[in-house]
Amino acid sequence: MTADAAGPDAGTPVRDPAWPLSRSAIGLWVVEGVIGTLFWVVVVVAVLAFLPDGGPAPVLGWLLPSLLALDAVVTIGIRPWVRYRVHRWEVTGEAVYTLTGWLTRTWTLVPISRIQTVDVTRGVLQQLFGLATVAVLTASSQGTVRVLHLEADVAQRVADDLARRAELVRDEVT
Fold first, then answer.
1. pTM score, whole prediction
2. What are the counts of helices (DSSP H) followed by strands (DSSP E) for the chain?
3. Which residues pair with 89 in a beta bridge?
4. Residue 65 to residues 26, 37, 62, 68: CA-CA distances in angstroms?
5. N or C: which end of the chain has fewer CB within 10 A?
6. DSSP string of 119-130?
7. Residues of 37-65 as b/e, b for ≥16 C-beta within 10 angstroms?
């Protein structure tokens, strides 16, 4: 079940989930921003190198680098800190809760009884920062709920605990 955090009438939670992501997620997002910015630097340099003289070239010669610099400031200097402040998660005896999004806020609740599988994944950059993602797969139309960028040992403990609890709930039902 998901709900945008628009107001009490929209089915929003009584409270936000308790735990922030690992602070290492900020570093990961900064590195991802630097990689993305470097990609766009190459694209902008290539575009400017192949533009013919005259026409839109004088305007693009200052506009594209200016937009790229603005994007770099937001992507590297602002967005990682905002994302860290707004992404939260919690596992209780009854459910997994996540709150994600910095422009569009999404609150997700997955009851333990609905969990089918729990996976831990570690991308290349996540490994460099000691992070992992816990993916909780349900049978609902929402699909998989991900708790991003937890410390690797915390992610493994959470996944083990959720898998054990989901198995206990399945055993109680049968």
1. 0.82
2. 5, 8
3. 19, 98
4. 25, 11, 6, 5
5. C
6. EEE--HHHHHHT
7. beeeeeeeeeeeeeeeeeeeeeeeeeebe
